[in-house]
Amino acid sequence: MLKRGDILEVIISDLDEKGRGIAETKDRKILIYFVIPGDFVKVKITRVRRKIAYGSLIELKTPSKYRVKPKCRFFGQCGGCKLQNMDYHYQLYFKRKFVRRAFEGFNLDAHISKVDPSRPIWFYRNRMDYAVGQNLEVGLRKPEKWNEVVDIDECFLLSERGNELLNIFREFIRMREFKPFNTITREGFLRYLVLREGKFTSKRLVNIVTYLGEFRDIDELVKRMASSGATSIYWSINPRITDISFGEEIRKIHGEEYLREKIRDYVFNIHPNAFFQTNSYQAVKLIDYAAKLLDFRSNDVLLDLYCGVGLFGIALHSYVDRVIGLELDREAIKCAEINALENDARNVKLICGRAEDLVKHLKERINLAIVDPPRPGLHPKVIKALLKIEPREILYVSCNPNTMARDIALLSKKYKLDDKIRLIDMFPQTPHVEAMAKLVRR
Ligand SMILES: C[S@@+](CC[C@H](N)C(=O)[O-])C[C@H]1O[C@@H](n2cnc3c(N)ncnc32)[C@H](O)[C@@H]1O
Questions:
Q1: pLDDT tens digit string along 4-62?
Q2: Candidate from 270, 328, 352 with most ligand 1 atoms within 8 A of CB, to mutate
Q3: What is the CB neighbour count within 10 angstroms for residue 157?
């Protein structure tokens, strides 16, 4: 029987959806971070559960032929890009496999495209949420360690300019001896540094998230960040214990009200708390795929469910008679309204509220629907309402293949999958992937 502290040599035969290598033993599966299929490794068992054990890498005995040299020196500690020791095409192979596995799990016969790769595969993100650790580290957390932050001064996810802002912030809070917020004692102040940037506009938004308290010398910090390219600077207060990079009270300290991003010919204003697709280069492809897959008719009404700041509805408004965008986040809807105006998308109507409460009350006849829910997928009431209002086609967009497959199985009594499921890599160096499925009414 395997027990904690055991040391053994294993071959890694597969990868799980969190990016952990899987080794099969007679006894149970062992999950290990920072190893890849094909590796022969020595591991130490750190935890044993009924069916699964967890291990940590002690020695790489023989490397997989798919190993590459990690670009970042924090690889192996940081929970950010866990697959950067794996050849990019091998990463894509596994992403497709995860989606196939999810659909097979619900007995869905789905044709799944190869993953459309991201270009670039570094500096592709437009948003990073850096946590402030207990010793004023500023960076990302270690995998599975909510209270240990890796102090990162060079990160290849956002941009060189992003790194400059990150380092200005770190130096400032250390020089002035700020206190990090501690969720256990409920003491301290600093929580997160959120950096967002428009890849096609060169705009940069800084959002410093704190607990309650006085922000000493904020003007000095703002001056330094503004002279390093920050076009908007916000201070957000999260007065709760919940460890999220989201402020309930949010104050603009400097510059423009919103971050601006351009996707194809459309401009999007984005509130600091509003969602936007994190890889702007691939967001262009999301729009292109949606335009290609849906069979638009000029008198159609398109429902953009979970519309955020209006990305899909606005970019596709000219294909249809009318668009209805529905979104829970009030600030996102406000931005969507501004975006519809600025992009001259006059046929876009926006509604703020919960999809599960509102969809069944829509008065208009909906012909097409794009649904792009958060990771937990569609609420059962939304599925029920979609089955009742019966749009001719539904385009399901998701970053979670498991909830997507579950929902498509539930919709399958009235809808069938049409065309391949398209996979778009929004998240290189991680196990995540974006999927898009077209469903047509039976
Ligand atoms: C994955 S994002 C998609 C946003 C948008 N489609 C885009 O591409 O930018 C999901 C959105 O759903 C919104 N949301 C979450 N729960 C919701 C709910 N119950 N009803 C309506 N919108 C919700 C979030 O605020 C977020 O903007």
A1: 999 999 999 999 999 999 999 988 999 999 999 999 999 999 999 988 999 999 999 99
A2: 328
A3: 24
Catalytic choice (72, 307, 335, 399): 399
Distance from C-alpha of 341 to C-alpha of 166, rounded to nearest angstrom = 34
What is the whole-number distance in angstroms between the Cα of residue 372 and the centre of ligand 1?
Answer: 7
- 347-362 residue pLDDT tens: 999 999 999 999 999 9
Does 328 sit in the ligand 1 pocket, CB within 6 Å? yes
- 10 Å CB burial of residue 219 (0-12, 13-18, 19+) is exposed
Is-catalytic flag, 399? yes
Q: What is the radius of gyration, based on Cα positions, of the chain?
A: 23
Is the pLDDT at 146 greater than 90, yes or no?
no
Set out the domains of the chain in order of their start, with CATH numbers: 7-62 (2.40.50.140), 93-120+263-441 (3.40.50.150), 127-260 (2.40.50.1070)
Whether 332 is in the pocket of ligand 1, judged by its Cβ within 6 Å, is yes
- pLDDT at site 167: 98
